Amino acid sequence: MTPKLDYRWHLREVMATRGMFSTTDLRPLLAERGIDLSPSQTYRLVVERPERLSLKTLMALLDILGCTMDELIEPVAAAGSRRRSAAGSGGPAPGKDAGLGSLRPKRARIVPE
User: Fold this and answer.
1) Which residues lie closer than 8 Å to 93 by C-beta, 6 or more apart?
2) In 3D, which of 16, 8, 7 has the Cα closest to residue 67?
3) 62-94: per-residue pLDDT in tens?
4) Contact (CB, 8 A) for 35 and 57
5) Cβ atoms 7, 68 nearer than 8 A
6) What is the pTM (predicted TM-score) of this model?
């Protein structure tokens, strides 16, 4: 079973590292790039984790902040999606990589004729 993925949204932290501490700082910069958000939409974008985000808005944020997607969005395993083994180690079974399952290639065995 493939583990469920989730993400952490770091827009507020990235803005702070760039000296932007107010959502009102972001609105005119987005407008310059053709993204017209209301004050409440801009506030929610900064302080909440967006469920849907247009690529145009994402690219504008990356341009404004001079950052990469990795700095803005951190992929994480969803809470409760990780199974524990009987030993309770929480890691993959010995000899198996987490999440690869049956996609793991099998070693070729060459037998002389």
Assistant:
1) 85
2) 16
3) 999 999 999 999 999 887 644 444 444 455 555
4) yes
5) no
6) 0.65
Separation CA 45–CA 47 (nearest Å): 6
Non-local (6+) Cβ contacts of 39 within 8 A are: 23, 24, 27
Long-range contact set of residues 18-21: C-beta below 8 Å, sequence gap at least 24: 18/65, 18/66, 20/65
Output the six-digit token pair for 52: 């849907």
Q: Which residue has the higher pLDDT, 98 or 33?
A: 33
The DSSP secondary structure of 46-100, one letter per residue, reads HHS--S---HHHHHHHHHHHT--HHHHEEEEEPTT-PPPPTTS--SPPTT--TTT
